[in-house]
Specification:
The chain is an alpha+beta fold. The chain has 4 helices and 11 strands.
Length: about 260
């Protein structure tokens, strides 16, 4: 009712331009331009990881890497295969009870929940009870002012129905499929709903020192009524040897 009276007064006084620039209209425009991506989401299709969930297939095929990273990655794959065959798979972040970091958290090994507010988008991962924050309509700080973290510093803005997110400042010990990165790493995401129950995250990894060309892939999720639970990792059964192999230690078994 208030908006109708305001419009009438604006038209009567010739102040239509002032009315269109008013906070009331700006708020309405913002509502139209910002779809709600809140909800619990699970990766789709269910077999996205391939035949071996413990050794998932890269989302967009082989990586094109510069040397010496290409050789190091090939050597790592050979070590992983040999360790799996020996029954002592190489330890990774989850084995060590460490956060997945970016962009792995978005691969949603377990469901993720997105909470959208006016100032931020929060990603809650069930696995390890992780939390990632995307600050909306904020400026990216200078790279040397960002304290490196598992998820980096993410800022986003809406372009129509798409949330565009830039991420810098990911910790140097966070790898993606075992591939390291330099401080120049930049992640770009374009997140949008393709229908009411489907969400897409188009991710581009750009680090010219490591990657011969930007590596892009799209993650697809389906909405779920699953309730996120607490998932605390207590590393009291996995031992990691000096070669990086992991062993299950169930402790004394008794007589």
């Amino acid at each position: 009712m208030r908006s109708s009276r305001s419009l009438g007064r604006a038209l009567a006084s010739g102040g239509l331009l002032a009315f269109l620039c008013s906070p009331l209209v700006a708020q309405a425009d913002e509502t139209v331009a910002r779809p709600d991506i809140s909800g619990t989401w699970e990766r789709y299709p269910e077999d996205w990881a391939g035949p071996d969930p413990d050794n998932p297939i890269p989302p967009n095929g082989p990586f094109k890497l510069n040397e010496p990273y290409a050789k190091a990655y090939d050597d790592l794959q050979k070590r992983k295969a040999a360790a799996n065959l020996a029954g002592t798979p190489l330890a990774n972040a989850s084995t060590r009870c460490l956060p997945e970091g970016m962009p792995t958290i978005m691969e949603a090994i377990y469901p993720i929940q997105i909470v959208q507010t006016k100032g931020q988008v929060i990603v809650l991962a069930e696995f390890l009870t992780q939390t990632r924050r995307i600050w909306l309509d904020d400026s990216m700080p200078p790279a040397d002012e960002i304290s490196p973290s598992y998820y980096g510093h993410s800022v986003g803005h809406w372009e129509g129905d798409t949330l565009v997110v830039e991420t810098l400042g990911i910790r140097p010990d966070v790898t993606y499929y075992g591939i390291p990165h330099t401080p120049d790493l930049r992640l770009t995401e374009r997140i949008r709903k393709t229908d009411s129950d489907t969400l897409e995250d188009h991710v581009t990894i750009d680090d010219p020192t490591v990657f011969a060309e930007p590596y892009s892939f799209t993650l697809t999720y389906k909405k779920s009524d699953y309730r996120i639970s607490e998932y605390i990792c207590e590393n009291n059964q996995i031992e990691v040897d000096e070669d990086g192999g992991s062993h299950l230690n169930l402790g004394p078994t008794g007589d």
